[in-house]
Write a structure and sequence with these properties.
- The protein is of the alpha+beta class and 104 residues long.
- It has one domain.
- The protein is 29% helix and 13% strand.
- The structure holds zinc ion.
- The site of zinc ion has 9 residues, from loops.
């Protein structure tokens, strides 16, 4: 599998992975930061606030830019600035993941 696509999977529902990591990197702002800086998560609602499964499936928000694009070192992905830059290029410039443009 394409290593960028493989890494992409780790940017969502990654509460457990980030919790076990020491360092994190962001594919959006291409910065590295300690895992404990990640304090914002999405995925919980008033209904599943106490559900351990929902908690484990939360998605980290980057403490620097607020995007859901955080990778932890426990994911096994090489957290180098170079790799993050490749992720950024492929992902955010839509060369890897294309969204269909609606025709009118
Ligand atoms: Zn960021």
């Amino acid at each position: 599998m394409n290593d960028l696509l493989a890494a992409y999977r780790y940017t969502t529902n990654n509460h457990v992975q980030i919790g076990a990591s020491t360092w994190c990197g962001c594919c959006s702002c291409v910065q590295l930061f300690p895992a404990e800086e990640v304090v914002a998560w999405t995925g919980l609602t008033m209904d599943n606030l106490d559900d351990p499964k929902a908690i484990a499936n939360q998605t980290a928000l980057c403490p620097r830019c607020g995007m859901e694009a955080v990778l932890g070192d426990k994911s096994g992905v090489p957290l180098s600035a170079q790799f993050l830059a490749r992720m950024n290029e492929a992902w955010f410039q839509r060369t890897l993941i294309r969204k269909p443009t609606p025709r009118k």
